[in-house]
Amino acid sequence: MAKIVIIGAGSHVFSRHLVTDIISFPELRDSTINLMDIDTESLELITAFTRKLVKQQNFNTKIESTTDLSEALKGTDYVITAIRVGGLQASQVEREIAAKYGIIECVGDTLGPGGIFYGLRNIPVILDICHHMEKLCRDAWLMNYTNPMSMLCWAVNDYTCIKNVGLCHSVQHTAAQLANYLSVPYEELDYWVAGINHMAWFLKLTWGGEDAYPLLREKFKKPRTYLKPGWDLRGTEADIVRAEIFKAFGYYVTESSDHMSEYVPYFRKKNRQDLLEKFKVRRLTNFKEKREMRRTEDEELKRQISSIEKLPINHSGEYGSIIIHSIETGKTSRINANVKNNGVITNLPKGCCVEVPCIVDKEGISPCYVGDLPPQLSALNRTNINVQELAVRGIVEKDKTKIFHSVLLDPLTSAALTIDETRRMVNEMFKAEEKYLKGFK
Q: Which architecture characterizes domain 3-87+107-166 according to CATH?
């Protein structure tokens, strides 16, 4: 019987998927699931939901709930992390400061000033969780969903002994979108994807055993293909940025157009509102709207808990439960995951974090050999890896200068700001978030 801990369980939309995914496998229904969060109100909600779900199905799954990290980790086999240190408020402060200097980030969780400072807040806490794991469950697997994924996994790989993997849904979501563009069934599409998180590449895309890229290029000659409202089921109006990257570099990238527009210098240039309009990317995040969405989600969860309706058990497609199932049962699966680059991608730096196909079975998670990426793709990846490496070192060493250097090398920032402007922006962000960033020199 496996013991599974979800840290940050109060982010209950995501936690609902994880719990439901786990118990969707009959072989995992005797597991213990421990829900851990420091927000007691959110924790109580997800705990009530989970207990109702298990009770309705008459499963033997044991549900535990705690705000104590050490209590949660004792004797566990799998630790899933999905945290946000500082919440929406800290992210809002950082984005607004960046916007004042002309850096407009709508997501800001992976790269750029927002992504780097997101790492400044999250990485020390994840490392602390790992140090607790070293004492309480040294052999457990850490499955991380927290961003910035590449920086965070890099830090865990270099500064702890914990087995870990970074998980994201961008590969499978993009594959579903490509199937939609191609007008073919998703289950008939085959693909081989590698690169870095949020900038991995569909190196092979086949349908019926044939290369599907010629068909995709033909489809993309008509802009209406990627201009359809709601192409990603979230109301986004267009996928123009990824279409432009595909046409320019020859391969399709995994993350959304809003995300991708933040990792390169081409689409969000300073004082160029015309570009935001042209490429239809979102502007600064509407945090009031996000908080309202959270309240709506809370109310819906409360309604589900109090109602007599039967809660469904449908697998979300997230990889976390698939990994647990394969390790526990020995049934082999293939996923895409973020791992240390020990020669898996040969033209990206050794030791960085790469996202590659992995085989999962009784022995654990084994990354597949990829070899060289096409040179234009590895070059784009390296512009982001340079930032990630300096940010990780700066965060662990509490070195403001390394953080400044990482922001200075960020593609979006360097396309918009001078060195002095970047220095002032970074200093202002440190001052605004000083309660989360103790001990920096």
A: 3-Layer(aba) Sandwich (3.40)
Which whole-number Å values give the CA distances from 381 to 106, 111, 321, 429, in the listed order? 21, 12, 29, 26
By C-alpha distance, which of 301, 304, 315, 305 is closest to 22? Answer: 315
> pTM surpassing 0.85?
yes
The per-residue pLDDT for range 90-134, each reduced to its tens digit, is: 889 999 999 999 999 888 899 999 999 999 999 999 999 999 999
Residues 214 and 98: their CA atoms lie apart, in Å, by 40
How far, CA to CA in Å, does 15 sit from each of 35, 78, 82, 159, 406? 9, 15, 8, 27, 32
What's the chain's Rg over C-alpha atoms? 21
* Residues whose CB is less than 8 angstroms from the CB of residue 8 and which lie 6 or more positions away in sequence, other chains included: 15, 36, 37, 81, 82, 83, 84, 146
What are 130-147's pLDDT values in tens digits?
999 999 999 999 999 999
Where in the sequence numbering do the catalytic residues fall?
A: 169
- Diameter of the chain measured on Cα atoms: 62
Q: Where are the domains of the chain?
A: 3-87+107-166, 88-106+167-284+317-441
Q: Model confidence over 167-197: pLDDT tens digits? A: 999 999 999 999 999 999 999 999 999 999 9
End-to-end CA distance of the chain: 47
Specify the DSSP class assigned to residue 253: B
> Taking 60 as the threshold, does the pLDDT of residue 4 lie above it?
yes
The CA angle 189-195-200, to the nearest 5 degrees, is: 50
> Facing residues of 205 across strands?
191
Assess contact for 333 and 360: CB atoms under 8 A.
yes
- Tokens of residue 352, six digits: 């960085």
CATH 3.40.640.10 fits 88-106+167-284+317-441, yes or no: no
Beta bridge partners of 292: none
Instruction: Answer yes or no: are the C-beta atoms of 393 and 385 closer than 8 Å.
Output: no
- Taking the alpha carbons of 337, 342, 347, 349 in that order, is the dihedral positive or negative? positive
For 367, phi then psi, to 5°, come to: -65, 145
Q: How far is CA 236 from the centre of its chain?
A: 19
Q: Reduced to 3 states, what is the DSSP secondary structure of residue 367?
A: strand
Residue 227, token pair as written in the block = 């201009």
